[in-house]
Amino acid sequence: MSRNYFYKDVLPFSAMVTVECTNVVLNILFKAATMKGMSNYAFNAYSYAVSTLVLLPFAFIFTGTTGLPPLKQSFLYRIFLLGVLGSVGTICGYKGIEYSSATLASAMSNLTPAFTFVLAVIFRMEKLALRSSNTRAKIMGTVISISGALVIVLYEGPKIISTSSQPPSLSHHFPLGSSQTNRVIGGLLLAVEYLLFSMWYIVQTQVMKIYPSEIVVVFLCVLCGTVISAPLCLIAETNLSAWRLKPDIALVAIVYSGFASSFSTVVHTWALHLKGPVYISIFKPLSIAIAASMGVIFLGDALYLGSVVGAVIISIGFYAAIWGIAKEEEEEMSEDCGFGSLEPSSTDKTPLLQRCKVEGM
After folding, report:
1. In 310-328, which positions are buried (b, 16+ CB within 10 angstroms) versus exposed (e)?
2. One-letter-per-residue 3-state SS of 148-198
3. How many Cα atoms occupy the beta-carbon half-sphere of 309 within 13 Å?
4. What is the 3-state secondary structure (H, E, C) of the chain?
5. Are 106 and 287 in contact (CB under 8 A)?
6. Residue 110 contacts residue 314 (beta carbons within 8 Å)
7. Is the predicted pLDDT of residue 175 greater than 50, yes or no?
8. Distance in angstroms (rounded) separating the CA atoms of residues 26 and 298
9. At what angle do helices 249-275 and 11-35 cross, to 10 degrees?
10. Residue closest to 164 by CA, chosen among 296, 35, 34, 290
11. pTM of the predicted model as reported, rounded to 2 decimal places
12. CB atoms within 10 A of CB 207
């Protein structure tokens, strides 16, 4: 009994907390590297290349031991689209962190369910049953989350925590000068990132129906992202000296990013099958607290009232949306177990937002 409890409860909890810490550490390392003058575009290209190399052996092992369908043209088109969305979204995300902070990035990441729900409604992949409490919860969560993001981006407020040793000035990177202006630009770039990744989740849902292999799909997406991001980043960063790697914090951040992304994918896939998408989702707001504390300790970032208030509002909206998803899942499970459900269940009936959480987390 104790071994079963450890495997089904203690180990998934510890793994998910570790993943959130791992992702926050990546943002912290990237921010520290940019303060030392590392180019955002060079980091993005190198990061994709390292991730491709890390996932390459796993993709070959998986395809060699499992019978998979052949690669079709429609599948490759969708993989290319995933590569475009992923690479452009990643560039916007890292540029947003460069302008703002890792704390802001962690807070804005909780907009993903809201953006996914809005896109699903626009493309008529999610039905709006306004009389249903589940739908009302998702709508309310979406509105609250977006409102919290606006608070974070537009309202800075007084400092709550500040350290005596401030990080190096970034004025040579950002001639706009005003910290509030940089914060707004960074917040908008991060919002664009998570909007693009919401689109990525929708396309990924269709891809997984065609080719049900998470490892292979992720590898092909990363490979395609590498091919797409390399020329884009070379065009954006024409200074060749910025591409030279030295044994410093930039090299550490690049290597760490490749392994961290692969580790997160493996843990999320494992925990998904073991505990389900809702369990994974509840850990997302934890990254806000981790990023805020690590940013203050290691980067000397100041914590502002606007970030705290906005993060709380986004978290409330996030959990409201997740509650709606959980209730919808419970109702579908009860219907499948009922006497009236004589037809075989179909995964196509699963709400898109829930499926996106399955594939994207």
Report:
1. bbebbbbbbbbbbbbbbbb
2. HHHHHHHCCCCEEECCCCCCCCCCCCCCCCCHHHHHHHHHHHHHHHHHHHH
3. 15
4. CHHHHHHHHHHHHHHHHHHHHHHHHHHHHHHHHHHCCCCHHHHHHHHHHHHHHHHHHHHHHHHHHCCCCCCCHHHHHHHHHHHHHHHHHHHHHHHHHHHCCHHHHHHHHHHHHHHHHHHHHHCCCCCCCCCCHHHHHHHHHHHHHHHHHHHHHHCCCCEEECCCCCCCCCCCCCCCCCHHHHHHHHHHHHHHHHHHHHHHHHHHHHHHHHCCCHHHHHHHHHHHHHHHHHHHHHHHCCCHHHHCCCCCHHHHHHHHHHHHHHHHHHHHHHHHHHHCHHHHHCCCCHHHHHHHHHHHHHHCCCEEHHHHHHHHHHHHHHHHHHHHHHHHHHHHHHHHHCCCCCCCCCHHHCCHHHHHHHHHC
5. yes
6. yes
7. no
8. 13
9. 160
10. 296
11. 0.75
12. 21
pLDDT value at residue 171: 39
**β-pair partners for 303:** 161
Query: 210: which residues sit within 8 A by CB, 6+ positions away?
Result: 69, 72, 74, 75, 78
| Rg of the chain over all Cα atoms, to the nearest angstrom | 21
Cβ burial of 5 (10 Å; 0-12, 13-18, 19+) is exposed
Nearest to 322 by CA among 78, 144, 130: 144
Close Cβ partners of 9 (under 8 Å, ≥ 6 residues apart) = none
If one counts every other C-beta atom within 10 angstroms of the C-beta of residue 45, the result is: 26
**pLDDT, tens digit, for every residue of 324-333?**
877 776 776 7
Alpha carbon distance 68, 58 (integer Å): 15
Q: How far apart are CA 9 and CA 182, in angstroms?
A: 42
Q: Encoding tokens for residue 311?
A: 């993060």
pLDDT tens digits, one per residue of 85-132: 989 999 999 999 888 888 888 888 878 777 877 887 888 777 777 788
